[in-house]
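Journal club side-thread
Mid-discussion, someone asked how the predicted structure for our own chain would compare to the paper's figures. Pasting it here so we can look after the session.
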Amino acid sequence: MPAQGKHRRSPSTSLGRTLAAVTTGGAVLALPVIGATSAFAAPAAAAAPQAVAPAAVAAPVNSVAKAAPTKHSVVAGETLSKIAREYSVSGGWKQLYEGNRKIVGSNPDLIHPGIKLVIASSSDGKAAKASPSAERGTSADRADRSERINAAPVAQAAEQKAVTYTNDLDGWIRESLAVMAEHGIPGTYEGIHRNIMRESSGNPAAINNWDSNAAKGTPSKGLLQVIDPTFQAYHVPGTSTDSYDPVANITAACNYAADRYGSIDNVFGAY
């Protein structure tokens, strides 16, 4: 009966319903194969951000910029050791001194108010020691830690040896003598004091506005009445660049006197 043979698709329909029923009952893995492929596209797309995430995490590492060095203006009573601790300088006062040797001079125990020290900076703009985790792992880092530990007693000794001078004529002369000793400039307390009393009566702000130097526009200034061209020519490194500064004025004048007369001690009149 040919007419009835055309309806043989009916068993297929029943099979489809049977498979659907079995799937509902627990054969979950059969669904994507038979006819629900598009229903699982969303989970596949959701996994994409996980592959991008590592690159996003690494990006900030490449965006770190090196900050400019910090400058510190020295005030009375400070030492390299104290400043190094304040800024957490890696390597302590020794590293700070090495980076500023030209302005500090040959004696790291003696720094003068007014000089500006350069403090090496880390990426966040502040000088800082390396983190403990960064220091672990290499022999070079361990050696660096060992050097800092061994340098600690030296730094403490340097701080203990630092001398504080009084802010008066006696203190200015004594501090000047210490600077002069570092630079090999001759002179004695008595020779300096004698000439100061003659030139300015001990007034660091004294200025001569009436002599021939003043007429030329270069009046004599300070404790030892030094004109600006002479002060600049004989300025001693590590002292203030202000010719009225007592210590800077004395040391420059003594440096000039040593060059011209052999020592400030040999000066007994206008020089």
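Post-session note: Residues 258 and 264 are 6 Å apart (CA to CA).
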